[in-house]
């Protein structure tokens, strides 16, 4: 397929490698529609759970990472790589380093990663880390592709024909380098077998939680912020035909942003088992982050000084400028929500979902739309987009969709938080958890309708860009192949030395983005009191481990937390607050970040085996108003753990103290725990307090239902808090 066939003859031989940029643009448009369609569908699933269809492949838990990965990595990632290839060539006045072969490898390699990741989620292969769900073999492939991408980008900077490195390229370079660091650090894992898909993360419990949100928050900070700020710094000046408002402000914006952002991850873990010093550090840096973020917003908006009239006639610029406004709003709301007292209300609620999507839709998607309305005519040698009227329809349809989405989530989120902590006049909790779920229904419908409008707007864009490529007015051929544009502005102080030396910039970026993570993460491994020394916590039995793997596979952490905060309402609703010791063998941790369903940290022993089986088979029959998918298929599937000893060995390699005896007896213990006729005396010596017996009502068959119920029945049962003092629980 040739993506350049409609270009004028003079562009057949071009100075820049624009063919790979065109390919990334086409795939960005495709993945945008996939991401928005998947997001809209799972939004309707939360309003109407029958849309889970009763199939294991279409449950919310499997489709949600499909949506997030399609939006962030497929749509957003393709846009970032494609625009970085265009910007670095044009601002350096040279073609891509490594020739067309390396660029083609990055394109096809990245698209292969996206397809493999999507298939793995649907088929049930996930390591259950938010925004980092792909299993180890897919992570390795992405690492290879990303290293080649870095080589191309850095090599192009090194062979540039411009003396200065333009500001957009600073942000692209920081984005590429930091994502590589985050990806490798967060995805360290030990596979059960070189030929198998399952792996166990290197870190566990509280350490894994902080490593995950060091990654998770900075995936937002560098993938969804720094990279798209690079687009702002190039494409808004191009469309406005104005220079960047303040080059000095862009310098402050860049270095302050990449230094401060990396510290902010712990604010996702307020009031959890993470030590207070780390939570406070994350909150402090999150609040400071507001200043450089708004400095960047001001720089972007003020670039339009003298060109505000273009907003009336240029829909693409209108998208970009509106995106900068959403960026400012999101980067004010984020620091606000990082304050512990605010987070106490907002965490685990839909408010967080509204915040994420105001940034994802309003900032990321809109800056991409504005960029696409510039890139497509430019790359296909057209005078302008096919229809400005259609672009305006897209703008207003998408804007209305965003408004419906985020306002419904703001209202429902605050309502959730207030309902969970509400007490009646007699001092009892006023609402059951399911009442808060039922109260969310109208807001979930409004959210889904907002998604429909946003999807419709994207389809309008697809038609408009298609018509631009095949029916747009062609630009008359010109003789020049390489125009000088976007070169660096000479500064009257020492920063110009950094701007002239790509390797020096790389060397300075690395410690700037690494120091925050090191300061926060390393002490969790060196301070002995990080994990309390309490009795009772033991490794999982083979059957419990199999059940936990099913819990991970089905994405249960997306709707259920396993972390009780030290609040009166949570203690009364769920039990004693969680401590770090309880999850010290959890590879990976399962604390969760959203409560569409109740917390499960102490669900063990609260309900009978029959209740769990019936609830998993038909949630709405047991809890009317529940939005949980049906998992009846678990009762039909045999436990897929061909080598239980191998799973225990893999866990021992990451620090779980399985003994040789436990490993040798793994296969027998797996079968005996769910066999009511088995002699389980030796098993109970190896695993005290293990629940034994038939779990699913079918003793003739060891099913995934047996395993999952066995796992649920042990949650929160190992530590006896009645015998502990406050000193025992101090970190």
From TrEMBL:
It catalyses: 4 Fe(II)-[cytochrome c] + O2 + 8 H(+)(in) = 4 Fe(III)-[cytochrome c] + 2 H2O + 4 H(+)(out). It comes from Elstera litoralis. Residues 542-674 form the Cytochrome c domain. The lineage of its organism: Bacteria, Pseudomonadati, Pseudomonadota, Alphaproteobacteria, Rhodospirillales. Binds 1 copper ion per subunit, denoted as copper B. Pathway: Energy metabolism; oxidative phosphorylation. It is a multi-pass membrane protein. The chain crosses the membrane at residues 24-48, 68-89, 101-124, 136-158, 170-194, 214-235, 247-264, 284-304, 316-332, 352-374, 395-423, 443-466, 503-525. This is cytochrome-c oxidase. Cu cation binds at residues 217, 267-268. One of its GO terms (cellular component) is plasma membrane. Its cofactor is Cu(2+); heme b; heme.
